[in-house]
Amino acid sequence: MPATARGWPAQVMRPSGRRFPLQPHFGVNRIAYWAPSSGTTINAIGMPWTGVGTASTPGLATTNLSTSMRRWRMTSAATVDGAAEERLAGWVCWRGNAEGLAASPLQAGR
Q1: Which of 12, 25, 36, 64 has CB atoms 3.0–4.6 Å from 57's, for a disulfide?
Q2: Residues 27-83: pLDDT tens digits?
């Protein structure tokens, strides 16, 4: 991918010799993610997070692949039929309900 006159997109060369562009700014592409922080905190960027139960972020360890990755766990209450879940707390995308929004991908490309 050739760079523009200003030098964007910035590129990095992999050990294989192939270049790939870096993403210059998350805000342009509407990036959204959830990431474990510490204790019971889950960071939400771009999409609101809500949960039922107790979130915990286990410490990192070298025991195996699972314990070496950042993660979180949701624990339900210790009662019968206790629930533990996580979900979006709002809309992430909205196509609207205007005429023509349900067109097929082939029609959208014309």
Answers
A1: 36
A2: 666 777 888 888 888 888 878 888 888 888 888 899 999 889 888 888 888 888 888
Measured CA to CA, the distance from residue 46 to residue 93 in angstroms comes to: 11
Please provide the distance, in angstroms rounded to a whole number, between the alpha carbons at the two ends of the chain: 25
Closest CA to 75 of 66, 85, 67, 65: 85
CB neighbours of residue 56 within 10 Å: 14
Task: Please report which residue ranges of the chain form alpha helices under DSSP H.
Answer: 26-29, 105-108
CA atoms within 13 A on the CB side of 35: 7
Do 73 and 42 form a contact (C-beta atoms < 8 A)? Answer: no
Cα 32 from Cα 26, distance rounded (Å): 9
Task: Say if residues 36 and 44 touch (Cβ distance below 8 Å).
Answer: no
